[in-house]
Automatic annotation (TrEMBL), chain A:
UniProt keyword annotations, A-Z: 4Fe-4S, Electron transport, Iron, Iron-sulfur, Metal-binding, Repeat, Transport
Lineage: Bacteria, Pseudomonadati, Pseudomonadota, Gammaproteobacteria, Chromatiales
Full protein name: LutB/LldF family L-lactate oxidation iron-sulfur protein
Region annotated Disordered, chain positions: 449-473
GO biological process: lactate metabolic process
C-alpha cells in the first residue's frame, strides 16, 4: 500500500466517525473562541507576534552558540546534558541513565518530543514501568492511542468515552461520566505513582541559555510533581527550543498560552535550574537534559524552510485548520498533526514516507494568520509540494524530494502548459469546450464524487467581450 | 490612487470558460464609471493551478505568457481573490531570479481584486434599485487572508438599501475548494463543502454572493449534487443587477 492509499484509509475512517467529528468540531470551536477572547486588540496581538517571531529568529540564528552556552550553564548548575542525533540515541541515553540508577518506574509529564522518539515503548520493552501523568496522556495510555493533538492529546474523546476507559481500567471505582469525578479518580491513581516512581520525565518549552533554566508550561501540576517528586528528573527536548535570555521568556510564554488554550497564563509554570542542593528538603537528586536533533539541523540548511523551527508548539494552527477540524489528528498518521505536522513531518521523515500530507491543505491561510511566531505555513507547505514533485532532485534539502512525481500527473501539467501558453490552442480549446458544452466528458474523479462537472458557458468571456465592443489592447 | 483613464481586465480562466457573465458584469461596473476597460485577447490563466500543485516551471511558463498582455502601466483588475492573490503575492516569488522578474513585480504591484478596485480606487457609490432580498456573503480565503480585503465586498453590499445580509456559522472557514485539493483530497473536500452548504442553507438566505468563482463552483456544485436549492452568484453580477434594477 503506498502512502496515499494509507492516508486515504485513515481519512475515510475519520470521516465515517460522526462522534469523532462532533468532538473535534465543538472542541475546536471552543478553543478558537477562548483564544480570540485573549486578544481583544488586534494591533497588540500583531505587535506581540512580531516580537515573538523576532525572539525565535534571534535564537535560531545563533543556535549553535546558544546551545554551547546552555550546556555550560546547565553543567555549572549541576544539570547533566546529553546530546542525541536520532530518536534511538535519545531513548538509549535515557535508558542508560535509568539503568545506572536502578530505576524501574517512571512517571511522565507531557512531552511531544518523547512521542517523536516513541520513548514509552522503548522503556516498556526494557522492563521499565512508564506512567503518563498528564490527564489526557493518561487516558490515551489506557486507550493505547497516540495523541490526536499536541496540546490537548485526548481531545478526540468525549467524557463518555473517557468514562468507559476508566470503568475498564479501574473497575474498583464506581462508574461516572462526570468530568470532575473522573479527574478525581485519575488523581487518586496518579498520586500513588508520583510517590514511588524512581524517575520523572518531562518535556521543555524554553531552555534559557543565559541562566541554564528549563521552562515547563502546564496546567495540572503533574509537570511539577514529575520533575520534583522522583529522585531523578530527565527532561527531553528538541535543540530548537533554546532561547537566549530569561527576558525572552515572558513574551513567548504570553503568546504561547493565549494562542494554545486561550489562557492568560497556565496554572503552573516551572523554571527548573538545578537539582536538590545540600540542606534542601525536596527536589530531584539528579537532573538531566536530553537534547534531540532528529532532522532539525537539516531543516536549518534551507533559508526558507528554516522558519519551521520557529514553532513553539502551541497547536493554534491545528485549532484553526478546516481540514484538521473535519478529520482530527489521527488521520495524519504522524506525531505532529495539522498544518505544523504537514510542514514538519515530511522534512523530518522524508517526502517518500509522508509527503502525501502536503495534499491535505486548501492553502486557506487560517494557520498562518494565527501562528504566534508568524510561520508562513501555507507558503512553506506549498514549497514542500514543489519539493515533492521536483523533476531533478539534488542531494541536499528535504529528504525524498521528487518522490511523489508521477509521470501521468507531470504529463497533465505539461499539456495544461501547452494549452494555456499558446493563445491559438487556448482559443481552439475554448471554442470546442463551449460549443460542445453539453457533452459531458467521461471523467470520474474526486471532484465528481461530490459535484457534477461544471458546464461551460455557451461562449467564453473573450468572445463576449469582443462582441460587446471591449478593446483588446 | 486616483481614478485611472483605463484598466486591463484579467478575466481568469475559470470566468472565461464557465462564468463569463461575472466577467462582463465586472467590466460593466468599471466602464460605467467612465474608465476604459481593455480585455487583452491573449490572456489565459495566472498559473495558480500548477503553482499550488508544485509544478512551478509550468506555472511560470503560463504566468509569463500573461506578462505581454499588460504592456502599459494601467491597473490590472481581477474578478477573483485567489487569482489576484496569485499575481500580487506569488508572481514575485515565482519570477524570482528570472530575466523578466521586474516586469512581473511591476504587474503584481498594479494588480487589484475587483471589489478592492471598486472601493479603493473608483470609490463606487451604489443606488439599490432591486427588490428586497436576503443574502449570505461567502468571502474566499484568498480575499480574506492573502489579500486582506474581506471588508470590501461587505462595504459594497452595505450600500444596497434593500439587501439584508445574514451571517452563516463558521463564516471565515474555507469552503473546501482549494483548487486541486478538491481532486487530491476529495473526501475531505466533500465533507468541508457539505458543512459549508449546511451553514449557508441554515441562514435562510435567498442567495449566496462571493467574489470568487472557485468557491461558487464548489458550493453550487455541491448544492446541485445534494439537490438543494440555493442560488449562487458572483458579486459583480449581483451588484450590476441591483443598480440597474435588472434581474430579479
Amino acid at each position: 500500500m503506498n502512502q496515499y492509499q494509507a492516508f486515504y484509509q485513515r481519512i475515510d475512517k475519520a470521516l465515517q466517525n460522526d462522534q469523532l467529528r462532533r468532538n473535534f468540531r465543538s472542541a475546536m470551536d471552543g478553543i478558537r473562541e477562548r483564544r480570540l477572547a485573549q486578544f481583544p486588540d488586534d494591533r497588540e496581538l500583531q505587535t506581540l507576534r512580531f516580537q515573538a517571531k523576532g525572539i525565535r529568529n534571534r535564537s535560531l540564528s545563533r543556535q549553535a552558540e546558544l546551545l554551547e552556552r546552555l550546556e555550560t550553564k546547565l553543567t555549572e548548575n549541576g544539570i547533566q546534558v546529553h546530546w542525541a542525533e536520532t530518536p534511538l540515541q535519545a531513548n538509549a541515553r535515557i535508558h542508560e541513565i535509568l539503568e545506572a540508577e536502578q530505576a524501574t518506574s517512571v512517571v511522565k509529564g507531557k512531552s511531544m518530543v518523547s512521542e517523536e522518539t516513541d520513548l514509552n515503548h522503548y522503556l516498556e520493552q526494557r522492563g521499565i514501568e512508564v506512567i503518563e501523568s498528564d490527564l489526557g496522556e493518561y487516558i490515551l495510555q489506557m486507550a493505547q492511542e497516540p495523541p490526536s493533538h499536541i496540546i490537548v492529546p485526548a481531545i478526540h474523546k468525549n467524557r463518555f468515552e473517557v468514562a468507559e476507559l476508566f470503568q475498564k481500567f479501574h473497575p474498583e471505582q464506581p462508574y461516572t461520566d462526570d468530568v470532575d469525578e473522573l479527574t478525581g479518580c485519575a488523581r487518586q491513581v496518579l498520586r500513588k505513582k508520583f510517590a514511588y516512581a524512581d524517575a520523572g520525565i518531562s518535556g521543555v518549552n524554553f531552555a534559557v541559555a543565559e541562566t541554564g533554566t528549563l521552562c515547563l508550561v502546564e496546567n495540572e501540576g503533574n509537570g511539577r510533581l514529575s520533575t520534583t517528586a522522583p529522585r531523578i528528573h530527565i527532561a527531553i527536548t528538541g535543540i530548537e527550543k533554546v532561547v537566549e535570555k530569561l527576558s525572552d521568556v515572558p513574551p513567548l510564554l504570553e503568546i504561547l498560552t493565549k494562542s494554545a488554550t486561550g489562557q492568560p497564563i497556565t496554572t503552573y509554570f516551572n523554571m527548573i535550574s538545578r537539582p536538590r542542593q545540600p540542606g534542601e528538603k525536596d527536589g530531584p537528586e539528579q537532573v538531566h537534559l536530553v537534547l534531540l536533533d532528529n532532522g532539525r539541523s537539516r531543516i536549518r540548511n534551507d533559508d526558507e524552510l528554516l522558519d519551521t523551527l520557529r514553532c513553539i508548539r502551541c497547536g493554534s494552527c491545528m485549532n484553526h485548520c478546516p481540514v484538521y477540524v473535519h478529520v482530527g489528528g489521527h488521520a495524519y498518521g504522524t506525531t505532529y498533526p495539522g498544518p505544523i505536522g504537514i510542514l514538519l513531518e515530511p522534512q523530518r521523515l522524508g517526502i517518500d514516507k509522508v509527503g502525501s500530507l502536503t495534499s491535505a491543505c486548501t492553502l486557506c491561510g487560517a494557520c498562518g494568520e494565527v501562528c504566534p511566531v508568524r510561520i508562513p505555513l501555507p507558503k512553506l507547505i506549498n514549497r514542500l509540494r514543489a519539493e515533492a514533485v521536483e523533476a531533478t532532485p539534488g542531494d541536499n534539502g528535504v529528504p525524498g524530494t521528487g518522490a511523489l512525481r508521477s509521470r501521468s500527473e507531470a504529463l497533465i501539467w505539461k499539456l495544461w502548459k501547452q494549452i494555456y501558453t499558446r493563445s491559438r490552442i487556448y482559443s481552439a480549446f475554448k471554442y470546442l469546450a463551449t460549443r460542445l458544452r453539453h457533452i459531458k466528458p467521461p471523467i470520474s474523479n474526486g471532484w465528481t464524487r461530490y459535484r457534477p462537472i461544471p458546464t461551460p458557458s455557451s461562449k467564453p468571456l473573450s468572445e463576449l467581450a469582443r462582441q460587446q465592443g471591449y478593446d483588446d489592447e | 490612487m486616483n481614478q485611472p483613464d483605463q484598466i486591463y481586465f484579467f478575466g481568469t480562466c475559470l470566468i472565461d470558460l464557465l462564468y463569463p457573465k461575472a466577467g462582463l458584469a465586472g467590466m460593466a461596473l468599471i466602464k460605467r464609471q467612465g474608465v476604459k476597460v481593455i480585455y487583452p485577447a491573449n490572456q489565459s490563466c495566472c498559473g495558480q493551478p500548477a503553482f499550488n500543485s508544485g509544478y512551478r516551471q509550468e506555472a511560470l511558463a503560463v504566468a509569463r505568457a500573461q506578462l505581454n498582455c499588460f504592456p502599459n502601466d494601467y491597473p490590472i483588475v481581477v474578478p477573483s481573490g485567489s487569482c489576484a492573490g496569485m499575481v500580487k503575492h506569488h508572481w514575485p516569488e515565482l519570477f524570482a531570479g528570472q530575466p523578466d522578474e521586474s516586469q512581473a513585480i511591476a504587474a503584481a504591484q498594479r494588480t487589484y481584486e475587483l471589489t478592492e478596485f471598486l472601493v479603493d480606487v473608483l470609490k463606487l457609490k451604489l443606488k439599490d434599485l432591486g427588490q428586497p432580498t436576503r443574502i449570505a456573503i461567502h468571502t474566499s480565503c484568498s480575499a480574506r487572508r492573502e489579500m486582506g480585503i474581506a471588508d470590501r465586498i461587505d462595504s459594497l453590499i452595505a450600500q444596497l438599501s434593500n439587501v439584508q445580509v445574514v451571517e452563516q456559522a463558521h463564516k471565515t472557514e474555507c469552503c473546501g475548494f482549494g483548487g486541486t485539493f478538491s481532486i487530491k483530497q476529495p473526501d475531505i473536500s466533500g465533507a468541508m463543502v457539505e458543512a459549508k452548504c449546511e451553514a449557508l442553507l441554515a441562514t435562510g438566505a435567498e442567495s449566496v454572493i462571493s467574489q470568487d468563482c472557485g468557491c461558487l463552483m464548489n458550493i453550487s456544485g455541491s448544492l446541485e449534487h445534494q439537490q438543494r436549492e440555493l442560488p449562487t452568484q458572483h458579486v459583480a453580477e449581483f451588484l450590476l443587477q441591483r443598480i440597474t434594477g435588472e434581474g430579479k
